[in-house]
Amino acid sequence: MSDDPVDPRPEIEEACKPGCQKYWKEYEACAERVQAKGEGHCSGQYFDFYHCIDACAAPKVFKTVK
């Protein structure tokens, strides 16, 4: 149906990613270290990246809620 609502969140989150590149680069650097060592994880850096995206996107998403 053409009246189905469209979720704006994925598009908004994608638009926020460039502003969070610092965290993405930290995640990539961690991933390279982990791959070289063969142990460890980068979940902290990954969550930092998505926290940045969420902080950017949340106010924009809530503006679209009726």
From TrEMBL:
Residues 7-66 form the Ubiquinol-cytochrome C reductase hinge domain. It is a peripheral membrane protein. One of its GO terms (cellular component) is mitochondrial inner membrane. GO terms for biological process: mitochondrial electron transport, ubiquinol to cytochrome c. InterPro entries: Cyt_b-c1_6, Ubol_cytC_Rdtase_hinge_dom, Ubol_cytC_Rdtase_hinge_dom_sf. Gene3D superfamilies: Ubiquinol-cytochrome C reductase hinge domain. Disulfide bonds join 16-56, 30-42. It comes from the Eukaryota. It is found in: Mitochondrion inner membrane. Keywords: Disulfide bond, Electron transport, Membrane, Mitochondrion, Mitochondrion inner membrane, Respiratory chain, Transport. Component of the ubiquinol-cytochrome c oxidoreductase, a multisubunit transmembrane complex that is part of the mitochondrial electron transport chain which drives oxidative phosphorylation. Belongs to the UQCRH/QCR6 family. This is Cytochrome b-c1 complex subunit 6. It comes from Hondaea fermentalgiana.
